[in-house]
Amino acid sequence: MEILWVLMALVMLGFVLLQISRRRRGAVGLVEPGHPDAADPANYGFAREEELDIRMPGPDEDLLDVLDLVQRTLDYRGAQQLLAGTEAEGERRWQRVQAFAGAASLELRQRPGGVGETPGGQWLRVWRAEAPKDAGGAAVHAEFLVQQAWRTATPGSDDFRIIMEEAKAACGEAALLAPGDPVPYIVELSVARGLGYPREEFEQLWLKILDRAPNHMGAHLAALQYWCEKWHGSRELAYSFAEAAAARAPRGSLLAAMPLFAVFEHLPEVNLVSGFYQSEVVTKAVHGALHAVHSAHRDDPMQAHVRHLLVFFLVRGERWAEAMNQLTVIDGHVGALPWTLSSDPAAEFAVYRALAVAGYEANGGSPATLPH
User: Fold this and answer.
1) Which of 2, 45, 106, 256 could form a disulfide with 292 if both were Cys (CB 3.0 to 4.6 A apart)?
2) What is 4-42 written as a DSSP string?
3) Which residue from 138, 201, 223 is spatially nearest to 172, judged by alpha carbons?
């Protein structure tokens, strides 16, 4: 019992010292809107919180136009045509498959159907029924089942396993329809995590992806989850996987940012060390991610994912100007880590954005000094 009291006293002392330290360093905090000291993100041309798009990490106007058409008309053919014209090995096809599947899943959740009512996501069922050999529809259906499992059932339960087994079969069918397409195998990575594939079976699946798209960032992010401590690996295994991917990343690849995602997945739930976000491991991972986005191709759709995570770490590390530089690129869309882990992604993003603006201005920054 005495040890417990000593530990509690140390925690409280650490908290008090942290507050004193932050005051001495002029640390930034949030105040109520309208307060004289409040910094206004609108002065920088940032979108209002209610205008933030939570569906995607960055813009994809073709996808939004088609998704709007499909949901309005319940005609799947626009989605079918868009996926057919999207490069199979690229990041954008994977994102679009996720978006269509997610839309159908959310529709079904909002309108489960009843007597005389058409259930949500009916267009996807029609798609599969009318075009059973269409590879795009098969991939979307497989991803839809995966998302249904995570949204509607508890991992480890019988219901969860049943849906995941169905998703696994759907992945196999989608892979047969498009032998060179990595997407069905990327979808199966989530199945592997949910069902707890043995490592040998997981590595065989991973080799199939590497054969088809060795530098696919989305695939690496999905595989990283399996190796994390909270699932089937450890901190060491996850770091090793991420660092190996970064080491072999070709010029212009965002794989150099993988260690930052590994760090994020293993953040301590309670951090009593004020300098954690300035520590060597975090600083090194942040620098790798900054290098990745600066050297990546301008049209790489995975850039937004990296930039969103950078905002989180740069704000936590009180690197205000660098955080603002990222915000000028990604503002308007918040469908990415870490915001999507919140029940209100737009509000979570808005808090970090407000902190970045306040910190930037507290250190002499202004809209006039921010490069665009």
Assistant:
1) 256
2) HHHHHHHHHHHHHHHHHHHHHTT------TT-TT---GG
3) 138
CA-CA distance, 213 to 183, in Å (whole number)?
A: 9
Place of tokens 């199939």: 208
Distance CA 289, CA 304 (A): 12
Instruction: Of 66, 312, 323, 83, give the one whose Cα is nearest residue 181.
Output: 83
Q: Is the dihedral of CA 316, 321, 217, 253 positive or negative?
A: negative
Task: Supply φ then ψ for residue 352, to 5 degrees.
Answer: -65, -35
pLDDT < 50: residue spans in the chain:
1-28, 31, 33-37
CA distance 164 to 298: 36
Structure tokens at 64: 């939004």
- pLDDT number for residue 278: 84
**The pLDDT of residue 92:** 94
Residue type, 155: P
Torsion of CA 140, 141, 143, 146, to 10 degrees: 170
> Rounded to 5 degrees, what are φ and ψ at 199?
-60, -40
Q: What's the pLDDT at 277?
A: 86
Q: Give dist(CA 126, CA 73) in Å, integer.
A: 13
Query: How many other C-beta atoms lie within 10 A of the C-beta of residue 266?
Result: 16
Identify the three-state secondary structure at position 170.
Answer: helix
At 333 the three-state DSSP class reads strand
Please give the C-alpha separations between residue 148 and each of 113, 121, 159, 216, in angstroms, as whole numbers.
15, 12, 11, 24
Whole-number pLDDT of residue 320: 95
Phi/psi class of residue 60: alpha, beta or left (left: φ > 0; alpha: ψ in -120 to 50)?
Answer: beta
pTM of the model: 0.86
